Amino acid sequence: MSIMVLRACRCALALSVLCAALFATTGGEVMAQDTVTRYVRYQHAGTVAFGRLAGETIHELSGDLFTGPADTGRTVALSAVTLLPPTVPSKVLAVGLNYRSHAGESGARQPGLFAKLPSSLVGHGAAIVIPKDASRVHYEGELVVVIGKRAKNVSEDDAPAYIFGVTAGNDVSERGWQGSDLQWLRAKASDTFGPVGPVIAVGLDYNDLKVETRVNGKVVQSESTRMLIHSVAKIVSFASRYVTLEPGDLIFTGTPGSTSAIKPGDTVEVEVQGVGVLRNPVVAGK
Asked: Which residues, other chains included, contact 225 with Cβ-Cβ below 8 Å and sequence gap of 6+?
């Protein structure tokens, strides 16, 4: 084989690898990226705004994100902003024991709901702060549902119409408090115990997304939302029987597999296929 032919073969191979990297998702499947819209909430130059993310550029939006926001024409580089929790919810709900790999055979016949406080939320890059008297703080990587319009007593069939999009979340949990306290307030809703982000993705098939958690680069959880015991639609329908869901409200859908403790100095990443990577360092409280 001549040198010129060999070089041509190498170039073709490199191009095929690059194309595969561009179109592959964390689940190893091809996804039509042009059908997915990603929104961020960010702070820049002292101003907080919503924006539509296109590549590495944020297009600023005005008006209500859930009722047709307008493009202001202003843009800012993603690298120049601080990403915030992608909504300002009136309430944050969560479902426990919603994967067989986490619940075993004890999964309930209906979603096991609990609440986190909105004040527990932090965005991509913000620190998870471990309180001084905490002893066993665990990660819980999850798909998080973003409600798009008011929902009360909606059916499971109608529930998808009330879902705006999805994001990634980490339901940080203090296991000692979870077992000893009357309620899970401290264990699940302490400040910084609810990282969410980095974006809201609209247009994904949230019934079949890979959820992966990594601690210091090591994969510690990895499973598809196909394995949820209670589907996203069922969760939204069930929650709406008892709590009126408002635009921007968040619902954590449960964590797969097993969890273990995190400590100051660790970095936790939760990646949801098509959403991106939510990354948060862990620090000690003062």
From this structure: 143, 206, 207, 208, 209, 210, 211, 232, 253
**Which CATH code for domain 92-284?**
3.90.850.10
Percent of the chain with pLDDT over 70: 86
pLDDT tens digits along 184-213: 999 999 999 999 999 999 999 999 999 999
Q: Radius of gyration over alpha carbons of the chain, in Å? A: 20
CA–CA gap between residue 97 and residue 88 (Å, rounded): 26
Q: 32-84: which CATH topology?
A: SH3 type barrels. (2.30.30)
- pTM, two decimals, is 0.88
56-81 pLDDT, tens digit each:
999 999 999 999 999 999 999 999 99
Return the minimum-mean-pLDDT range out of 96-100, 155-159, 191-195.
96-100
The Cα–Cα gap between 67 and 88 comes to 15
Domain locations in the chain as residue ranges: 32-84, 92-284
The answer to whether 138 and 262 have CB atoms below 8 angstroms apart is: yes
